[in-house]
Amino acid sequence: MQAGPARIVVLNGSPHRAGNTATLLAWTAEGCRERGAQVEWLHLVDYSIDYCRGCMLCLRTGACPQADDLAAVRDRLLEGDGIIVGAPVYEGFAPAQMKTFMDRLTLLNLYTRTFARQRTVGVATSGVAPTMGVARDLADFFGRRVALVGAQTTTVADGFRRLDKARDRQLRARAQAAGRRLVATITAPSKAGLPTPMEIWFRCFLWPRVVRPLVIRHPDQFEGVIRIWREKGLLTGPGGEGVAA
């Protein structure tokens, strides 16, 4: 069981601090607070995060060499037990702020399972485009997915609508229920449910057949990864003993 209240970090990947995505995130956070969780907000638009340079030095050193706000945002996310992450849908994807942040984290996330401990709710909004694909991608990237919440905010009859003015009680109730479920999986892990297809694919195929053998056979290319593995105890088991100290 969780010791003390669950700590939830809300990550708003929208360029608007108080737009529809923030409203849907706030409704989800309400459900977390109902279950006694502590909630902290991060708005990516408030931070300076540069494009990934593709240098791959993070794999050698264990950290990105660029001097910006990446590490500060990542570390605050890692302090949380759960993450509610949201973004609007732009051309079928998250917007530039969120995509850039994910690009910068993606290599170490893949090789070191950065967010393996966190439970997540993915949130996405759009005018008329589908939302659940983006919500799912966000939730799966930042931890183990618990729930998804999506909202389309434009109709032919009403045009564009602000969620905070529309008073959509059913949508708000769904978001709050997702927040309550997130806290429940943290405070009572038995309620976490079955692993997602993404988790099964990673655990059963990608990790044992690709990631682990690749790193162990080429330690000079993955010095930073191996150091993080040692810190997390991921070098135990067959094959780990062959990695140089």
What this model shows, in words?
The protein has 245 residues and is an alpha/beta fold. The protein has 2 domains: 7-193, Rossmann fold, CATH 3.40.50; 194-245, no CATH class. The chain is 45% helix and 16% strand. It has helices at 20-34, 57-61, 70-78, 96-112, 132-141, 163-166, 169-187, 197-217, 223-232, and strands spanning 7-12, 38-43, 82-88, 119-126, 144-152, 154-155, 159-160. The strands form 2 sheets. Strands 2-1-3-4-5 form a 5-stranded parallel β-sheet, sandwiched between helices. The chain has a two-stranded antiparallel sheet with strand order 6-7. The longest helix has 21 residues, at 197-217.
Note the main sheet: 5 strands, parallel
How far apart, in Å, are the first and last alpha carbons?
A: 35 Å
Amount of beta strand: 15-25%
Overall pLDDT confidence: 92
Structural class from helices and strands?
alpha/beta
The percent range for helix content is 40-55%
CATH topology of the largest domain: Rossmann fold
Q: What's the order of the H and E elements? A: EHEHHEHEHEEEHHHH
Uncertain spans: 238-245
| Biggest sheet strand line-up | 2-1-3-4-5
Name of the top-level CATH class of the largest domain: Alpha Beta
List the domain count as a whole number: 2
Rg over C-alpha atoms, rounded to the nearest angstrom: 19 Å
Global morphology: globular
Total helices: the number is 9
Under the CATH scheme, which architecture of the largest domain would be assigned?
3-Layer(aba) Sandwich
CATH superfamily of the largest domain: Flavodoxin domain
Number of strands: 7
